[in-house]
User: Which sequence fits this backbone?
């Protein structure tokens, strides 16, 4: 999850994104345009509408959203917006229970990996063809597409890069970070052997969410974990990626049993001079260093893309949250009017000022408020090629099985072939949930 205290900014150039137009199929949705564009729903009127909206949002978004939507209500005096903050740890079950009971809100912040599940329950309204989806980062927009239809829009985004200590890298004889995976591992080993670190890099040894760290290495080898028909974990590319990931533990470059909550402490002390995370960690490590008396720590580290292999393009994980309208809303026009307003570039910049949430709208990054930090321009570049997991309703369950196999790789020395065969077998048993 993105941390609200992050201080982040980057300039990103425009990347191609999916469009949301097509031909009416007579059932309230439109077919794709023949070039892979997702189907969309009936158009809405976003001006001159009225109604009372119930909105759910999690974390800092739920706390800050009332302040933002006050401006929307001022611009749309016939619409009232009631925001209910929902704790992240209970949000998923609250949504599922409300879907079952028919008591869903009109609009909600929805985690990207929940989209397939909720759409599979017929709970989400297809994105209207009149909503411009071409303004979003492509990878973010793809998180809204389930079985060929878009359900919602990206609200904010994040991606992951490698953090590394430049001073320790220099001590290890590394003046530049290798962009190939073999060279990258050699650098991590050198930072331990020559740079005085306890471990060369911190990698998650399985357990919940480890796929978010493993998959960037796999995508950066050209691997895919799913087709339209199902999961594909047992491919040569995935096996090679998992073997590569496991080699960091087998060769004692990464700790298979790292202590919890030590990432920033170990990074600042130099005990573990590399880790993979999102842009929120910049403020966290710098604040920790300042508390330790090092106000200039920002000059001692940098970020770099996940290394690639086999001629593939570097590709990281794209996360964040989407905005969705629930299908049982009685205020469809007003609901989508709010969603459209929340994803206007100027609104996204205001939201960034309030919460530090990274805008999903590409043009928002051209604002002066988001162009002050050259270091974070690398996150903007990464967003243009970042990928998300498949939007199958069963993804959360399959991801749990995948994480379990990665833990065996890291802690028991299981081979990539064995792990991915087991993951594939479990995924086949679970199915896509479609």
Assistant:
């Amino acid at each position: 999850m993105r941390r609200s205290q992050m201080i982040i900014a980057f300039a990103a150039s425009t990347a191609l994104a999916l469009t949301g137009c097509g031909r009416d199929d007579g059932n309230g949705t439109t077919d794709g345009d023949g070039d892979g564009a997702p189907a969309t729903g009936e158009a809405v009127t976003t001006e001159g509408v009225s109604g009372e909206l119930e909105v759910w949002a999690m974390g800092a978004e739920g706390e800050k959203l009332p302040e933002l939507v006050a401006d929307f209500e001022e611009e749309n005096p016939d619409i009232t917006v009631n925001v209910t903050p929902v704790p992240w740890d209970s949000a998923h079950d609250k949504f599922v229970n409300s879907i079952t009971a028919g008591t869903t809100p009109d609009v909600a912040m929805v985690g990207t990996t929940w989209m397939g599940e909720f759409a599979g329950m017929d709970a989400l309204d297809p994105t209207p063809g009149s909503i411009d989806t071409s303004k979003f980062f492509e990878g973010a927009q793809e998180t809204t597409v389930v079985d060929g239809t878009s359900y919602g829009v990206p609200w904010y985004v994040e991606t992951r890069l490698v953090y590394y200590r430049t001073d320790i890298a220099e001590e290890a004889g590394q003046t530049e970070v290798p962009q190939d995976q073999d060279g990258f591992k050699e650098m991590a080993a050198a930072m331990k052997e020559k740079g005085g670190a306890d471990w060369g890099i911190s990698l998650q040894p399985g357990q919940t969410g480890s796929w978010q760290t493993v998959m960037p290495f796999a995508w950066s080898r050209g691997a895919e974990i799913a087709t339209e028909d199902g999961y594909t974990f047992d491919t040569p590319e995935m096996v090679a990626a998992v073997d590569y990931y496991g080699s960091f533990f087998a060769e004692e470059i990464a700790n298979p049993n790292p202590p919890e909550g030590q990432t920033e402490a170990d990074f600042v002390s130099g005990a573990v001079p590399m880790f993979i995370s999102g842009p929120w960690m910049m403020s966290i490590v710098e604040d920790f260093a300042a508390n330790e008396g090092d106000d200039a720590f920002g000059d001692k580290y940098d970020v770099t893309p996940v290394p690639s292999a086999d001629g593939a393009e570097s590709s990281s994980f794209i996360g964040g949250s989407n905005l969705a309208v629930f299908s049982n809303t009685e205020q469809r026009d007003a609901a989508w009017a709010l969603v459209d307003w929340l994803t206007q570039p100027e609104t996204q910049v205001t939201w960034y000022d309030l919460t530090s949430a990274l805008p999903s709208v590409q043009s928002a990054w051209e604002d002066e408020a988001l162009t002050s930090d050259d270091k974070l321009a690398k996150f903007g570049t990464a967003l243009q090629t970042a990928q998300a997991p498949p939007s199958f309703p069963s993804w959360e369950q399959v991801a749990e099985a995948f994480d379990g196999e990665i833990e065996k790789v890291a802690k028991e020395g299981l081979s990539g072939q064995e792990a991915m065969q087991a993951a594939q077998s479990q995924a086949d048993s679970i199915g896509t949930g479609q």
Summary: The chain has two domains: 23-159+318-383, 161-312+394-430. Confidence is low (pLDDT under 50) at residues 1-35.
